[in-house]
Amino acid sequence: MRNSKHKKRILVTGGHLTPAIAIIEELHRRGDWEIMFVGRARAQEGSDSLAREMHEIPKLGVKLVTIPAGKLPKKLNRLALRAILRVPLGFLAAYMKVKRFKPDVILSFGGYVALPVALSGKLLGIPIVTHEQTVHGGLANSLIVLFADVLAVSWAESGEHFKKEVVVTGNPIREAIVKGIRKSLEVQTGDRPLLYITGGNQGAHTINSLIGKILNRLLIRFTIIHQCGMTKNGSDLRLLTQVRSSLPEALRQRYLVKDWFSAEEVAWILSQADLVISRSGANVVSELAFTGVKAILIPLPHARKNEQLNNANLLKQAGTAEVILEKNLSSAILLRTID
C-alpha cells in the first residue's frame, strides 16, 4: 500500500483533449494529485503529424506516455488492417503502463486509446470513471461504460442512451476560457469584424479547402483567424500559408492561419470574434455556448449517430447558430449564410 502522505495518483486518458486539459488544470489547483496521461503518438492513422496531446500535455507539467492503440475501422483497407493488428499491442502496452503507475483511479475521456487503458484498469482492480461529451456516446465509451464504476456525462439525456445511472457534470471547459485568461494575437483587426474559423483539434479539410477558395472575398469584409489543424499531414496548413503569401500586403495582415491556438489565445479570440465558422464537436459547441459567440456550424457528416448535427442543433435552437449540412456546403451557400 502506498504511503498515505504521498499524493493520490490519477491516470487520465482519451481522445477528447480539451476537457481532459480542463480537468488536469483543476487537479493542479487542488495540488494533491500525481497525474499521468496516456495518449497516442500520431494525430491520425497513417499520419506523420504528432497528436495534439504530444504538444499540450507536457506544457501542463504532466507525464505523457503513448501506446500503439489500434482504432476499430469502419471499412477495411491497408491502414485499417494495420490498426486492427495494433489492437492487441495497444492492450499489452496499456496493461504494463497501468500496472507500473499503480493509479488510484483512471479517468477516461473516450476514444480508441482509452479503451485498452480502461480495460487494463478493470483487470487490475482500479476504479474507472469515464466521461462522455456527447448525448449518445462514441463506440469506445459505449464499451467502457459496461465495466466503468462511474459514468459522468455532459447531458442528462445520456442516461437513457446508456441505460445506466449517470452523474451529470456538464462538459469541462478550459480554465483560460472560463476565467478570461487571454493572450492577444498580432493581427490587424482595424474596424472590420473578426471571423474565427476552426475545424476542432485536428482541423477540417473540407472547411479549409472551401475557405482557401473564397479567402480574398472574405478578407474584404473580415479580419480572419484560422485554426486549420494538421489535416492531410499538414498539407492544408502549407497550402493556406502559400495562399496568404500570395495576398496583397493589406489583406495578408488581416489573415492569421495556424494549426493550433493555445487556450489563452482561444479565450482572446472568442472575446473578440463577431462570428465563428466551425465543425460542431462537443467541445467547440460547449465553448461557444459558454461565450455566446454567433456561429455557422458545419457538422461532421459521418460522426456516430449524427452527434455533431445534434450538437449544432442545440445552438441553433438557442438562437446563436446557423447550421449548414456538408452535403449542401458550397462557396455560394456559405457566403449567403454569412450575409
UniProtKB/TrEMBL annotation:
It comes from the Bacteria. Residues 195-338 form the Glycosyl transferase family 28 C-terminal domain. InterPro entries: Glyco_trans_28_C, GlycoTrans_28_N. GO terms for biological process: carbohydrate derivative biosynthetic process; carbohydrate metabolic process. It comes from Candidatus Chisholmbacteria bacterium RIFCSPLOWO2_01_FULL_49_14. Pfam families: Glyco_tran_28_C, Glyco_transf_28. The chain crosses the membrane at residues 105-129. PANTHER family: GLYCOSYLTRANSFERASE (PTHR21015:SF22), UDP-N-ACETYLGLUCOSAMINE--N-ACETYLMURAMYL-(PENTAPEPTIDE) PYROPHOSPHORYL-UNDECAPRENOL N-ACETYLGLUCOSAMINE TRANSFERASE 1 (PTHR21015). Signal peptide: none annotated. Keywords: Glycosyltransferase, Membrane, Transferase, Transmembrane, Transmembrane helix. Residues 13-149 form the Glycosyltransferase family 28 N-terminal domain. This is Undecaprenyldiphospho-muramoylpentapeptide beta-N-acetylglucosaminyltransferase. One of its GO terms (molecular function) is hexosyltransferase activity. The keyword Ligase does not apply.
